[in-house]
C-alpha cells in the first residue's frame, strides 16, 4: 500500500435491535481501526490542522465515528487516531464513500504531502461487551478549541493466536483492577478483529494477534507515578510473570496527548 493514500477516522454504530446489539449498546463501535502515522519532519501539526478542519465531520457524514485523535508524545512526527464502524460491511461502504468522495479528492494532495508512512493499522473489536470506547453524550470540541492536558496510554500486547482469549480474560479480571488501583482509568479494551479486510485499498496488519488497552491519566506525572507504583507492587509483577509465556513479543505502550477536537480525552 502506498503512503499516498490517507486513512481516516471513526464511525458511529447503528446496530439493529437484538440481544447482541443491547449488549454492545455502550460501545462506540463494533469494529475500530487503531491508526499510527509517521509524518515527514515538522508536518504533524499541518496534518492535524487539516484533519480537524476537513476530515472529521466529512467522515462521520458517511457513517464513520472519529473517536480519538492524538499526538504521540514519544515521537514528534507521529499522529495516532481511532475510527470505528458498525460492522465490516459498513466499513467498506463508509470508506468507499469517503475516499471516492469530494472532500478527500479535494484535499488528498495536501494530506499525502505530510505522510511518510500510514500503513501501521490494527483492525480491532471490543474485547467484551461494553469494553469499547463509550462516546454517548460527549460533545466534540469546536474548531480552534484548546487541546486537552490529559495523557492516554495505549498498550498493545502482542500475543499468540491460542493465548489471546485467555489473556483478555486475565487482563479484565486481574490486570485492570491493579492498574486502576494504581491510578489508571481504563477507557477501553480491544482485541484483534480477524475478519477479511473489506476495503483492500487500505491494508491492515492482518497477521497480528493483539490485546489493546487504553487508559487515561490526569497528566504525564500521574502516569510516571503509576509506573513507579506498579514496579513496587508484587501482585503486578506476579501477574506479568504468569502471563509472560502468552506473549509473542514485548508489549508496546503509546503515550498519547489528545488533540483539540478528540472525543476521547
UniProtKB/TrEMBL annotation:
Gene3D superfamilies: 3.30.70.100. The keyword Signal applies. Residues 32-125 form the NIPSNAP domain. Keywords: Signal. Residues 1-23 form the signal peptide. It comes from the Bacteria. Pfam families: NIPSNAP. InterPro entries: Dimeric_a/b-barrel, NIPSNAP. SUPFAM superfamilies: Dimeric alpha+beta barrel (SSF54909). This is NIPSNAP family protein. It comes from Massilia aerilata. The lineage of its organism: Bacteria, Pseudomonadati, Pseudomonadota, Betaproteobacteria, Burkholderiales.
Amino acid at each position: 500500500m502506498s503512503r499516498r493514500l490517507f486513512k481516516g477516522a471513526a464511525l458511529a454504530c447503528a446496530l439493529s435491535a437484538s440481544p447482541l446489539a443491547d449488549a454492545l449498546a455502550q460501545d462506540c463501535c463494533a469494529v475500530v481501526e487503531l491508526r499510527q502515522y509517521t509524518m515527514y519532519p515538522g508536518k504533524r501539526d499541518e496534518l492535524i490542522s487539516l484533519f480537524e478542519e476537513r476530515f472529521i465531520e466529512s467522515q462521520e457524514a458517511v457513517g464513520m465515528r472519529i473517536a480519538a485523535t492524538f499526538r504521540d508524545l514519544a515521537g514528534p512526527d507521529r499522529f495516532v487516531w481511532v475510527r470505528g464502524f458498525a460492522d465490516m460491511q459498513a466499513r467498506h461502504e463508509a470508506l468507499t464513500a469517503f475516499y471516492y468522495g469530494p472532500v478527500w479528492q479535494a484535499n488528498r494532495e495536501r494530506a499525502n504531502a505530510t505522510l511518510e508512512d500510514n500503513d501501521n493499522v490494527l483492525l480491532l473489536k471490543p474485547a467484551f461487551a461494553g469494553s469499547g470506547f463509550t462516546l454517548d453524550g460527549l460533545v466534540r470540541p469546536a474548531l480552534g478549541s484548546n487541546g486537552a492536558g490529559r495523557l492516554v496510554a495505549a498498550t498493545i500486547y502482542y500475543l499468540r493466536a491460542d493465548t489471546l482469549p485467555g489473556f483478555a480474560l486475565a487482563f479484565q479480571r486481574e490486570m485492570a483492577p491493579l492498574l486502576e488501583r494504581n491510578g489508571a482509568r481504563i477507557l477501553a479494551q480491544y482485541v484483534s478483529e480477524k475478519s477479511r479486510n473489506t476495503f483492500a485499498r487500505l491494508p491492515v496488519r492482518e497477521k497480528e494477534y493483539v490485546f489493546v488497552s487504553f487508559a487515561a491519566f490526569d497528566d504525564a506525572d500521574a502516569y510516571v507515578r503509576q509506573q513507579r507504583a506498579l514496579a513496587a507492587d508484587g501482585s503486578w509483577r506476579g501477574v506479568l510473570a504468569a502471563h509472560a509465556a502468552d506473549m509473542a513479543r514485548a508489549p508496546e505502550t503509546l503515550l498519547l496527548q489528545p488533540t483539540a477536537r478528540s472525543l476521547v480525552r
